[in-house]
Write a structure and sequence with these properties.
By secondary structure, chain A is of the alpha+beta class. Helix content of chain A is 23%, strand content 34%. At the A-B interface, helix 1, helix 4 and strand 2 of A face helix 1, helix 4 and strand 2 of B. Strand 2 of chain A pairs antiparallel with strand 2 of chain B, so a sheet runs across the interface.
């Protein structure tokens, strides 16, 4: 957070890149055991007979790892605070890859009712080390305006 | 999975309810330390001076806990497999409450190219024990059709 950024510090079209985060099979299974206990996220052998044809991370695990990368990549004044968004997982995330993110600024909207803040719409694309996209997230973030 | 359901076994407008899942402060902090390490998810005292005015769960933690409840509530043949969706967090989730879900079936669409499966669009609403909504998720699930 050494150079925290306010709403005024972004430009539409700007792309900010960050990462890396290694995806280990143990982490996939640990997340799944807690939050998404289904065989294709828990057991390599048993996963072969499922829709996924092998072990794959829970989409919500991909989302959580992506959030980690966003927090490390976007030094927002006030922190990374999302109101919601639209998420898609175009392909299964397999263990043994390393994730990175590309965050594109889509819209910057100062609030009419709250002069001290605004909304930043961003598209965060989560890539494997092969370059393939495992998640897209378009989200609205609450971002403070520069004081004074 | 004792009474697994296929695409044909659902009706538009049907609502399926499930839960409960208790939200403890330690779980909020543990998830945040791993995936969303920001002060308002990590420390009660420091969180008071933030946007959230106190400790609140990461939205992705709410999503992950909701997935746990969906997996326990929807006995889908083939498992609960999502392609993506739209998520919103209308209010902060505080520790000390118990979550439950209400899953409404919005659309049932057999696949044209894949006769063995189809898409189920659902809206999952995550409630606190007070009844207040902490998350809505509209998602498309891949669901097998009944064989034969």
């Amino acid at each position: 957070m050494s150079a925290r950024r306010y709403l005024e510090d972004f430009a539409v079209g700007e792309i900010i890149r960050g990462g890396a985060l290694r995806v280990e099979p143990a982490a996939i299974k640990e997340f799944a055991a807690k939050f998404d206990p289904q065989v294709f996220h828990l057991d390599e052998e048993a996963a072969k007979d499922t829709f996924f044809d092998g072990l794959a991370a829970s989409g919500w695990h991909t989302a959580a790892m992506t959030m980690r990368l966003i927090v490390e990549t976007l030094p927002l004044a006030g922190g990374v605070i999302g109101a919601g968004g639209t998420i898609a997982w175009p392909k299964p995330l397999r263990p043994g890859t390393t994730l990175s993110v590309a965050i594109e600024i889509l819209e910057i909207r100062p609030s009419r009712s709250r002069p001290e803040r605004g909304m930043l719409k961003m598209k965060c694309t989560t890539h494997e080390d092969s370059g393939e996209v495992v998640q897209t997230l378009v989200a609205d973030l609450v971002v403070p305006r520069r004081p004074g």
